[in-house]
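Today's session is about reading a structure prediction critically. Students often jump straight to the picture, but the first step is always the sequence itself: look for stretches that repeat, for charged clusters, for runs of hydrophobic residues. Only then move on to the predicted structure, which in these notes is written as discrete structure tokens rather than atom positions. Here is the chain we will use throughout the hour.
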Amino acid sequence: MSEKKKKTAADTPAENTAPAQEAAETREAPAEDSAAENIGEELEQLQKQLDSANDKLLRTLAEYDNYRKRSAKEKETIYPEAKCDVAAKILPVLDNFERALAAPCQDPDFKKGVEMIFHSLVAALTSVGVEEIPSEGEVFDPNLHNAVMHVEDDSLKENIIAEVFQKGYRLGDRVIRHAMVKVAN
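Below is the predicted structure for this chain, in token form.
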């Protein structure tokens, strides 16, 4: 019996420590689970914040790209419009020089000076792409000509321009000023 007691006594502390270890493991397991859950939740929150920041960045990049394209398109349209506006303001001066050349003048040097100014003005307009719309003797085109008179003339075919009252000009395909013409019917 004494051996039994010894065994039992020796076994008793081992038996007593096993439930204590199980209890300690049980206490640690929920602590580890809750810590893992907290880390998982933090990870999810950080992933959501990262996704939100990436989404904002992509939207900002797309907006900037659209802005850049819109600005480039505006620049492409503004320049030709500005050229047409400037040319339209210069055309009356050109008309006045033509009238001055058509008027009789006694001083040949003065007339030569006006001709030189006229030719340099025409050359400047031509260099930026402004060209005269062909009119007299051409077929009437309402996109290029403005008919202000009609005349019955058997020597001309129908819808042929008989006379030009004011020259028309265009810049590329864009009409700056329509030609004012008399059309034969």
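Discussion point for the tutorial: The helical segments are 2-102, 108-127.
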